[in-house]
Amino acid sequence: MILVNLDMPKPDFGDGSVVQHMTTGMLIKVDMISNPFPNSLKTKDIETLKAYNLLLLPIFMLDAINRFMWLYDDKEFQLEDRGDAIGFVYEIRDRINNMRYIGKKNFYSTRRLQPLKGQKRKRKVVKESDWQDYFGSSDEVKMLVEESGRERFERRILRLCDSKGEMSYWEMWYQMTNHVLLRPDRYYNAFVGGKIHRKHVLKK
After folding, report:
1. Strand ordering across the sheet containing 55-56
2. Sheet containing 87-94: which strands, arranged edge to edge?
3. pLDDT by residue (tens digit) across 10-59?
4. With 90 as the cut, is the pLDDT of residue 166 above it?
5. Could you give the 3-state DSSP secondary structure of residue 156?
6. What is the dihedral of CA 172, 174, 177, 182, to 10 degrees?
7. Residue 83 and residue 74: Cα distance in Å, rounded?
8. Is the distance from CB of 1 to CB of 29 less than 8 angstroms?
9. Which of 46, 77, 86, 110 holds its CA 20 to 30 A away from the CA of 57?
10. 159-185 CB burial, b ≥16 within 10 A, e <16
11. What kind and span of H or E run contains 101?
12. Which residues touch 120 (CB under 8 Å, ≥6 apart)?
């Protein structure tokens, strides 16, 4: 986290750089002053910081920035890290009470649109899903995010999956091996279900 005097000319730290307003304490992007609570900190040049009268705070305070991202193997996960995976199984942890939620999520979503004039086949539109801003399908977790903010939760990817069948299998595997339904004091999960055929899991 960085303190900055906004009366100075805006330094260029690249897309996604973060500063904290000296007076209000609000976290903001240097390239988008009106947008608080960014996802990551990418400040590179300490001498530039000094030149613009910036003050670095203790390293532990960077957690206020890093807590918004997805982690995989204890590292920040980016879409380009997915390889051939179409989705993942995840665990969301409540930082306040240590309760967790296990679920699955696709990286991309597919929509079927009506055929163009004179054609019969419906159109398929594929676009990136909302996985980066996703906090699970649990109504309780979504309510807590709304009330307490995203920073209340830590999000980890447990396993990358190459098919929907794989996602369903490993989601259920993690849910069952952790006995989520038998541990309401530990997990937000209130439902486990699915129907998976062997051919959807075994790779040819």
Report:
1. 32-36, 27-29, 18-21, 2-4, 55-56
2. 75-76, 70-72, 153-161, 87-94, 100-106
3. 444 444 444 444 433 444 444 333 333 333 333 444 444 444 444 333 33
4. yes
5. strand
6. -80
7. 18
8. no
9. 77
10. bbbeeebbbbbbbbebbeebebeeeee
11. strand 100-106
12. none
Sign of CA dihedral 49, 54, 60, 62: negative
For the record, the structure tokens of 18 come out as: 């973060």
DSSP H/E element including 102: strand 100-106
Which DSSP category does 16 fall into?
T
Q: Which residues of 47-76 are buried (b: 16+ CB within 10 A; e: fewer)?
A: eebeebebeeeeeeebebbebbbbbbeeee
Cα gap 181→52, rounded to integer Å: 54
pLDDT in tens, 93-118: 999 999 999 999 999 998 888 887 77
